[in-house]
Amino acid sequence: MRMFHWLRAIVPALAMAAPLTAAAQGELVVYCTPQEEWCRPMVTAFEKATGIKVLMTRKSSGEFYAQIKAEAANPRGDIWWGGTGDPHLQAAEEGLTEPYKSPKLAELQDWAVRQAEASKYRTVGVYAGALGYSYNTDQLKKKNIPEPKCWADLTKPAFKDEIQVANPNSSGTSYTMLATLVQLMGEDKAFEYLKGLHKNINQYTKSGAAPARAAATGESMVGITFLHDAVTQAVNGAPVKIIAPCEGTGYEIGSMSIIKGAKNMENAKKWYDWALTPEAQAIGAQAKAYQVPSNKNAPIPPQAPKLADIKLINYDFAKYGSSAERQRLLTKWDKEVSTLPK
Q1: Domains recognised in the chain with CATH numbers
Q2: What does the alpha-carbon distance between residue 211 and residue 217 come to, in Å, rounded to a whole number?
Q3: Model confidence over 301-332: pLDDT tens digits?
Q4: Bridge partners, 251 (sequence order)
């Protein structure tokens, strides 16, 4: 009898201690890069649709790229969903992700398919969004500063300690800014610009979306982010104005990759196919995420920035998503910009 009671007590404890990636449990480990408010309803909807238990972690693109690389010999994650395409492309180039041709590819926008082709089908586009910034209208009026309409305006002395942007090492958003400025201005002028901008930065955040929240609350006057992150704050009632810079700007193709050696490979493919459906992509707008979805049949949120109205550069995803170029630019930024005094 004592043995029976002992077993009854210990079995649930053993179940709770089961490894996170145990395939026998019908589980899936998702590395999620968009905001938590979008990641969680995605997980809930997938669990409801498939009965598969999802274990989700949320981090920035650069952080997950580094983690997946560190875990390559013994992968803990199964699928990496969302986040800027550059680190996904770098992971693909380094063989950290698994080739997979989804039957949903035929339903996707051309830019999403090109992302898959460029990576030899190791990643695919799930959404797109343009880079820019937002400013707090109350703060700008209070300090009587002219409206910043262009990248050049952000280096003016009036914005000293008024701007927030993420660190490009941890944030795909900020790496997109770095690569955008190099393509827009040429490398020498871009780094001179970044040195000037550095004088006006009050904080380099870890997350790419954080500066939009800082501008919304008035913690910072200006937040450099993807425009859709600022739209989320505006929809929530924050006193912000959203700017697509006059000189032109870059954009992201938010991507998705299956991690090489995933312990729950079949479940990872199920997520991959499901996440490319119109139903799954409609969850973004419900979560107040206003990117442009990659499935042609998915509804585009009316609040989403209209890419056709924005002066977008011809962003070279293959070059700036390559391992060598990305690492070279980040090393140069660390050496020439981040160490400078304010």
Answers
A1: 2-128+252-300 (3.40.190.10), 130-251+324-338 (3.40.190.10)
A2: 10
A3: 999 999 999 999 999 998 998 999 999 999 99
A4: 130
